[in-house]
Amino acid sequence: MSENPNQPREYDAVLGGQVPPPKDGVVLGGIEGVKRRLIGATSLEQQIIAVEEALKYGQAGTKLVFQIVNTESEKLEFTVSSLLGQQALAKVQSHLHSDIPLISAVDVNYSRLQNLLASRKWKDADQETASIMLRVCDRKPQGFLDPSDVEKFPCEDLNTIETLWQKYSNGRFGFVVQTHIWQMVGCTSNPDWEAWCRFGKGVGWFSQGAWRYWNDLTFDLSANVGHLPRGGAFIGWGLGDFWTGCKTLSALAEKLANCKIA
Prior knowledge:
Blueprint: H1 31-40, H2 44-54, H3 58-68, H4 74-93, H5 111-118, H6 122-136, H7 147-152, H8 155-169, H9 175-184, H10 193-203, E1 206-207, E2 210-211, H11 242-258
Helix pairs in contact: 1-2, 1-3, 2-4, 4-9, 5-6, 5-8, 9-11
């Protein structure tokens, strides 16, 4: 049976209850109570508190936030993406590896990528990641990967790339954390422009109503969780082409799951 989002949670305060409301509780438990708080918020501070409460309800709460709250406020947009990132980051950091064997099924040398990431040369590492992935799939002439390429990508190589990004960013960057955010904002393989924009806002590729070009990204650890990699190996990746972007990211999420990469 699916979970009822209107059922009170452990962090809700229910009218008539014997326990005093917790500091971050919601009077009138369930997502309906949170919805009222979001709609009734009259200041940025109230909106931020309501957003924090809503995101505790997973996809339902995330959708509610983007439906009701005007995230064109730079501070509020930052808060929403930061909270999403923190939730995704917690999942990734529980699986971080200390040792990274540079394994490849197709004889790729990952030493340069490792050195770039270890030196925190994020922009160069992003380019190197794209170059490697295109080379592995023999797609350099085309300059991009499509969902069928993702499906055929060797698990060993995907795991090496992912583990390197996770280790040297302490879990902030990588495909796994991107797919966590992708799932949290309700994205699926069915192209959905609003969901794609929610994902873009979550990882910091879409801001103030526009998609950011690669050269305009933030190539340091102050960037949104999931901001990198985005080196252009995937067609539609982060440039508003939601049809191909949704298909490709969905294929990547499925590939990571099939390869048991977390």
